[in-house]
Every structure is written in structure tokens, then in C-alpha cells.
Amino acid sequence: MSYNLKQECCKPERFVGGHRLCAGCGAGVAVRGVLRAVNDEDKTVSGVATSCLEVSSVLYPFTAWNEGYIHSAFENVAATIAGCEAAYKARKRKGEQKDSYKFVAFGGDGGTYDIGLQSLSGALERGHDMVYVCYDNEAYMNTGMQRSSSTPKFAEVTTAPVGTEMPGKLHHKKDLTDIVVGHGVPYVAQTTFTANFKDLHEKAYKAHYTPGANFLNILAPCPRGWRYAPEDLMKICKLAVDTCVWPLYEVVEGEWKLTYEPKNKLPIEDYLREQGRFRHIITPQKVINPEAVAELQAHVDMKWKKLLAKCN
């Protein structure tokens, strides 16, 4: 598959503009990129867990979805789309369904790392022919920016406020991608928005067209929760990748492959400085809490070293 950004952007959109997602939000960018990777001859059915994406893209009587769409509860979007895929296969066997469909579940980190983990795990174990996409904005942004198990350590959120008793969130982020790999599914990948979206597109295409239950974890920053300027979305994502906070890799049939390695791995300070949620430990001008920054750097270095070993 050869990738051409201009050609891909000329395809009819399956997720259109006019939604109410914030300027600089990564959720809509993730959805457009994932659905754009579906071949023109295939149709899609997308399920969306309760989230910013859901409340902003379907405001009755309007919708940003040009094809099949189902709103699921917070905890069961994987089960909903798995059921759609099973019904589709049954109708295919009976000769009642002629069109070709791809089935995609979208959930934020709250609905994936936490509340929907049981539903996701079940769908992966059963091997439904579907793609689960987590757009990871590292908190429950829709309901007031509360911490999730995806929130990084020391980030300030409403349920882990900064004060004399608490320095922000007290625990490191859960490695959900690694947990999904443990299910033995055919294709798992971690990606975000970099350069010309080539990494996102190619991984989404593989996820759609690899038979079985496949998973994409997409870092999708939130300007309100992370506190960055809306126009800096791509800058934040690039820094996440170049500091190895969010490495880009894929796991194909259990084989780990690094899809991008920074020529010069940047210090985590470069990433933290751009976000107001870390302003209590580092500002653009100075490091306020060097011990906290050093701990985060050590954690990233440890995870990166383990990833390199897995990828040989």
C-alpha cells in the first residue's frame, strides 16, 4: 500500500465537519484518520462510547457521521460492535447481506482503560472481525477532567488537584497497549498525529484489513484538560513521540516492531513545558520540582528500554 496524503484527503469524508468538538481536540482528527483508511468500496458501522466524541458529534437532529453510527453506554461499545459484526456475518451466510462492511468501535481512555475494559477484553478474546480504537486524551474530559488510569503521574486533574497534600496524580499511567497484546490478537498498534499522518493511516489500514479483533491506541490530546493552545495539537503529539513518552510501534501476530525511532531522543522536559497540567512541576522558564521531572524521565527511559528489547 502506497500512501498519498493529497489523494487520501480527496476521498469522501465518513466523519464530517460541523461537530462541536473543541478547536485543537485530537478526537475528531483520530476518527477522520481511521475511517479515511477504509477502502471506498467498503461501508462502515461505527460505535462510540459515551464521551466527548459522542456528545459533540451527534446533537439531535444533526450528526457528523455519514455512515452507520451507534451510541453505546460508557462500558459496552466493544460488545455493541461485536454484536453488529456477528449479525452481519449471520446475514452474509444467509445471503441477506451483499455489501461489504467494516466495524469500528471508538472509546476514550475512560471508556477503554477503565469502564469498558471488560467489554473490550471479551470482544478481543472472542476474535470478532472489528477494530477497537482508543482515542487517548488521558482523563475523563467530557465530565470535568477527572483522572483515569491513563492519566500520567503528576498531571493536575480535578480529582487529583495540586496542593499541600497532593502533587497531582499519584500513579503512573497504565500500559493498555501491552495489556491488549496479551490477548494474542492479530494486530495491535500505537500511533498519533505526526508529519503527514502516514503512520496513523498505515496502521489503521492494517487494522481494518487484518482479519480478527484488532486494536489501535491513538494519543489524542485535549486542549482544555492538557492546557495547550489549540494550534499546538501537532506540536504536542510530535514532542510525545520524540521524547518517547508515546512511542510508535505495532505488534503483528505477536511480533513487536518499532515504526519510528527518534534520531535524537528529546528530554521529557520539552514535552512537559508545553502543558499547563504540569505547570506546578515545570514552566516554560524553569523547573520547579526537579525530583518529579527526574522521576518521569526515569520512567520513560525504563519503558523505552523495555520496548527496544521487545522490538530487538
How would you briefly describe this protein structure?
This protein is of the alpha/beta class and 312 residues long.
3D structure, described in words:
The protein has one domain: Thiamin diphosphate (ThDP)-binding fold, Pyr/PP domains (Rossmann fold, 3-Layer(aba) Sandwich), CATH 3.40.50. A hairpin with a 2-residue loop joins β2 and β3. Helix content is 36%, strand content 16%. It starts with a helix and ends with a helix. The chain has helices at residues 5-9, 26-36, 52-57, 77-93, 109-114, 117-126, 176-181, 198-209, 223-226, 233-242, 268-272, 290-310, and strands at 43-49, 58-59, 62-63, 68-72, 101-108, 130-136, 187-191, 213-219, 249-252, 255-258. It has 312 residues and is α/β, with parallel strands linked by helices.
Instruction: Report the CATH topology name.
Output: Rossmann fold
Shape designation: globular
- On the 0 to 100 scale, the average pLDDT is 97
- Strands of the widest sheet, in order across it, are 4-1-5-6-8-7-9-10
Determine the structural class based on helices, strands and strand pairing.
Answer: alpha/beta
Cα-to-Cα separation, first versus last residue = 25 Å
CATH architecture: 3-Layer(aba) Sandwich
What is the number of helices?
Answer: 12
Q: Strand count, sense and closure of the main sheet?
A: 8 strands, mixed
Rg from Cα: 19 Å
Order of helices and strands: HHEHEEEHEHHEHEHEHHEEHH
Q: How much of the residues is beta strand, in percent?
A: 15-25%
As a percent range, the share of helical residues equals 25-40%
Can you tell me the CATH superfamily? Thiamin diphosphate (ThDP)-binding fold, Pyr/PP domains
Contiguous low-pLDDT stretches (5 residues minimum) are none
CATH first level? Alpha Beta
